[in-house]
Amino acid sequence: MPAPPQAKCDILIPVRVGLVPRPDNDYDSRAVSVAAPPHHGGSVLDRHMGYLYSSSLHVTSESIHRLTEETGTPVGCHGWIELHELEDDGYFYEEEDGQDVDEGWEPDRDRPFSWAEQKEFGYGIGSVRVLLPARETVRTLVDDYLEEHRRTKAAGVTEEPSGTDSTPPSVVDQGLRRALSERLVILMRTGLYHRATDGTWGRETDRDRARQRRDAEALPLLRAWDEFRERPHEFRGLRATTRSVYQHTRILVLDEAGVEVGRFHHPDGPLTLVDERTRAEALEALSTHGVDVDAPERLETLGEFPDATVVAGNGIWSIRLSKDGLPLSALPEAGWYDPDSGTLTVYAGPFTEPMTVLLRRHGVSPLLVTWGAPREDVERHNFRAMFTASEVSPFSRFSRVTEVVRRLIPERHRRWLNVKPAEPAPSADGFLPPLVDDAADNSYYRRALESLFGASVDLEHRGPCRLCGRSAQSARPGLYYCHGCCGLAQGGVLRDNGADGEWTEAILYAVRRLAEIEFSGPPSLAQLDRISVPFTDAALVDEALLCRFLVPRPSSTLLSARPARPARTWTEWLQLADLLTDGVRSSMGTVTVATDGHLCRSLFERHVDDFLHHWGVVHEQEPHYPRHPELNTTGLRADWRLADGTFVEALGLMERQAYAAKVARKRELARLAGLRLVTVTAQDLHRLPEIFADWLPPATR
After folding, report:
1. At a CB cut-off of 8 Å and minimum separation 6, what does 607 contact?
2. For residues 646 and 676, is the Cβ–Cβ distance under 8 A?
3. Would you state the pLDDT for residue 104?
4. pLDDT tier at 156 (50, 70, 90 boundaries)?
5. Span 596-614, mean pLDDT?
6. CA–CA separation, 183 vs 45, rounded Å?
7. Measured distance CA(542)–CA(549) in Å, rounded
8. What is the pLDDT of residue 588?
9. 581 phi and psi, to 5 degrees?
């Protein structure tokens, strides 16, 4: 009969099948077999055609088990066999170059019919599909049937003698046990015969062939891992930091570019790393941070580790193989470790030793190492990993800015905003798109607006977002920006993926443009948290926000397992943008010349000096403190003096004891001399407009 559109085939043959519980299934005791009806003859195993998908078990397994236990017979189900037109279906093809496409063919689960048989039949024979109602429908039908069945049964059956079971054993269970016993006897006889004649146990199974395939695929990896361990890693300046969100503590190991290299799972470990070669440096970074980690006494004796990483979660450690272009969550799984039982399961025999070494480097020794086949969902996951793009995308998020706003960015860079279709713009009668966020209820939205604009949110008024048209609120009169656009300004749509392309030029343009219109010099990352252009120029505010969209942040960095280069630090991005051409590294920082010609001993000092210059705050560099017989015998200097005599200090090395002592002397000198002293730390860079509000020209306050 012709197939309906949802059947996804050309012709179908209606059939009835039996659904039989198969608790003997090694992978899932809830498994349900799709079998030919009993009148076809043979045992349950002989009539078996396949299993329901795992996703279907959540819908029907419980109901099918209950129904067969009560009735003792298979559950009937309607379905169809798919038939495909041979000339229309790309799966079926003619012989090419005289080759026999059926050469070596044997009936199996995937190809039960040869090409010649299907050609003679006139159709390509596809899968058997079953019609399963929704879960609630199945449950309701089964509940109603069982209630009626038991009521009828109770009305027509007399009371059983004491000590007997009134429920007869299931015919399905009996048939399955009998068939399994017969199959076992046959297999044992066949195996013993082959063992006696040729020393083997008989014919290979699909499971045996799959295991041999995985073992063969593992051998080249062992050779690649030998070369991998000889090469140095490219992560530099490892340090540990603690972050807490909603009372959930994370201890991260970062490199100097802010890329996450590893994580110590608080409070008892383990320390998991994206590159096992960094373990020694990561342990040292954690020790410096004050975290005591149980680690092997001699890592050098455990050098035969694989190029793999451990993903710890839900009580199980998943061992993932590193692969170019894939994030951690998409890496293929090669085995898993159960900390409760101490069992390591590997999917290929050659992985046994290197995976054991990897776990010992994590501070554990498996009590039992076994071989096992991956679950069906893991097989699908690993299959997808084979065909994933080999390069991590430079996009981390997307924006919805309007076409008019996009024109603020040069045409060659606009596409890197990763724009998707914008929502309809508000109409002339004042209708606005649906409200997405309310700053009164959404603390994240409120903090984002207040951080970017340095003022409290106006909760009474709303207007269209100037960038995307959505309903939004403001922290400055007339400047409405939605939560999504504020988030993109703080996090960016581009990320450092360890490779360079046309998007790199867009990043450099955005950095240079921000330096020009907002900072009069290279900005710090902290300064990007605050909009510093005049709020009276709304178009300039829009442009400053869009440029922030294109600037990558360390937190969004996503490198492949083998990036073309390490992630860039913010200083390296500034150098690539030619904003630090005169910078010279020293023990105190990068010595550079500010936009107004002042020599600054660190980038931190330059950020402050450029801010004062950009906003027209008159400042003199390195004025002398008053002499004092005890506190100032060496001619102490401040960093700047403002027009009204206020001294300004940029405190950049307070962790050094001698530096902190000198700062204390300066504070006391200023107090005794009656000098006004303003101090700025690196954490204050995003607050410079507030700190220097008293000195900003009236038009820009």
Report:
1. 519, 521, 522, 523, 524, 527, 685
2. yes
3. 67
4. low
5. 90
6. 9
7. 11
8. 61
9. -65, -25
**What mean pLDDT do residues 487-510 have?**
91
d(CA 515, CA 521): 5
Q: How far apart are CA 199 and CA 508, in angstroms?
A: 70
Map residue 462 onto helix, strand or coil.
strand
Residue 283: what are its φ and ψ, rounded to 5°? Answer: -65, -40
| Those residues with Cβ within 8 angstroms of residue 199's Cβ, 6 or more apart along the chain or in another chain | none
Residue 218 pLDDT? 92
Confidence of residue 620 (pLDDT cuts 50, 70, 90): very high
> What are the respective helix, strand and coil percentages of the chain, to the nearest 5?
40, 20, 40
Q: Are 362 and 428 in contact (CB under 8 A)?
A: no
Q: What confidence tier does 439 reach under pLDDT thresholds 50, 70, 90?
A: confident
Chain segment 550-591, per-residue pLDDT in tens: 999 887 887 766 677 888 888 889 989 998 876 676 666 778
Element (H, E) at 219: helix 206-230
Residue 459 in 3-state DSSP?
Answer: strand
d(CA 228, CA 220): 12
| Rounded Cα gap, residues 457 and 474, in angstroms | 6
CB 551 within 8 Å of CB 510: yes
pLDDT of residue 166: 46
Question: With contact defined as beta carbons under 8 Å apart, do 274 and 262 qualify?
Answer: yes
- Alpha carbon distance 409, 419 (integer Å): 13
Average pLDDT across the chain, whole number: 83
pLDDT for the residue numbered 701? 58
- Alpha helices (runs of H) in 396-465, residue ranges in sequence order: 403-406, 411-414, 443-453
The yes-or-no verdict on residue 430 having pLDDT over 70 is no
For residues 562 and 556, the answer to whether their CB atoms sit within 8 Å is: no
Pure H helices in 580-687: 603-614, 657-673
CB 2 within 8 A of CB 74: no
**Is 351 a residue whose pLDDT tops 70?**
yes
β-strand partners of 564: none
DSSP code string of 134-192: -HHHHHHHHHHHHHHHHHHHHHH-PPPPTTS-SSPPPHHHHHHHHHHHHHHHHHHHHHH
Q: What is the pLDDT of residues 51-109, one digit of tens each?
A: 887 767 766 778 888 888 888 888 888 888 888 887 644 444 445 445 566 676 777 66
Classify residue 564 by its DSSP letter: S
End-to-end CA separation in angstroms for the chain: 79
Q: What is the Cα–Cα distance from 588 to 659, expressed in whole angstroms?
A: 11
pLDDT of residue 420: 66
Helix (H, G, I), strand (E, B) or coil at 294: coil
Would you tell me how many other CB atoms lie within 10 Å of the CB of residue 525? 16
Residue with tokens 């700062």, as numbered in its chain = 663
Give the span between the Cα atoms of 322 and 539, in whole angstroms: 46
The CB-side HSE value for 595 (13 A sphere, CA atoms) comes to 19
Q: What's 496-518 look like in SS3?
A: CCCCCCHHHHHHHHHHHHHHHHH
CA distance readout (Å), 187 to 25, 191, 206: 17, 6, 15
For 299-308, letters b (16+ CB in 10 Å) and e give eeebeebbbb
Give the pLDDT of residue 170: 62
Q: Is the peptide bond before 267 cis (omega within 30 degrees of 0)?
A: yes
Angle at the Cα of 626 from the Cα atoms of 621 and 631, rounded to 5 degrees: 110
